[in-house]
Design a protein that fits this description.
The protein is of the alpha+beta class. The chain is built from 6 helices and 11 strands.
């Protein structure tokens, strides 16, 4: 399998500081109250709710957070398509485990190794379905709660963590904690750092053109294809 190498440097657009994201933490909330809160905010995707054994965090997401989430998700979709990796996307669906008294919404999530087990399902039941194989966490600001510990409790094998500058891939170890790795188990041909230029704002190319350029770049990494030589292909 070929290794994806970093694309040529591109000129990013000038970026204003990331807008501050707001975090509100409330304690002494029982499980049923948390479920009720979730129902109230069901159709408010820009408000992320994390529950950890009696404590609830409400987080409002910034424009930068939402754009990075979308761009990284599109990168994963495009790579999966070109590398012929089956995926079942779950978006920002809510995962709740009453037995653990924990719940949260990832920024994006995917079943890959377990894609066939959840294919076509419109719900998720913890006693029937596996957790997503890969989740995205955009960390332009940090949660007040330990979301990684919640992912570990849910058994999510792999998390991609992007802070706007660095993309880190961490995997769940036998001891129940996450360790950073150089290659993604879901996309082992990829160096996470090779994707970062594609995630940076660029005012020189429109969004759909950037996606097409990224798709072409991925194809050029496949065996028997000439290497990519042109720049300007970062997702804007």
């Amino acid at each position: 399998m070929s290794v994806l190498t970093a694309p040529p440097a591109v000129r990013p657009a000038s970026q204003p500081p990331v807008e501050h994201e707001q975090h509100f933490v409330v304690g002494a909330i029982d499980w049923q109250s948390y479920l009720t809160i979730g129902e109230v905010f069901r159709d408010r995707p820009a408000i992320r709710i994390t529950y950890d054994r009696g404590t609830v965090e409400f987080m409002t997401t910034s424009p930068a957070h939402e754009k990075y989430k979308h761009w990284l998700g599109q990168v994963i979709h495009t790579m999966a398509d070109e590398l012929n990796v089956p995926i079942e996307p779950g978006g920002q669906m809510t995962f709740q485990r009453a037995d653990l008294e924990r719940g949260l919404e990832p920024d994006q999530c995917y079943w890959i190794a377990n894609e066939a087990r959840v294919r076509g399902r419109m719900d998720w039941l913890p006693d029937r379905d596996p957790p997503p194989d890969l989740v995205i966490e955009i960390e332009v600001s940090r949660s007040a709660l330990n979301r990684m510990a919640i992912y570990a409790a849910l058994g999510c094998p792999e998390v991609w963590r992007f802070d706007g500058t660095t993309l880190r891939v961490v995997v769940l170890g036998p001891d129940g904690t996450y360790q950073e790795v150089e290659r993604s188990p879901s996309f082992p041909a990829i160096s996470p750092s090779a994707l970062v230029p594609f995630l940076q704002p660029n005012d020189q190319v429109d969004y759909l053109s950037a996606i097409r350029a990224f798709r072409t770049w991925v194809r050029q990494q496949l065996p028997g294809q000439p290497p990519a030589t042109s720049g300007g292909n970062a997702i804007p």
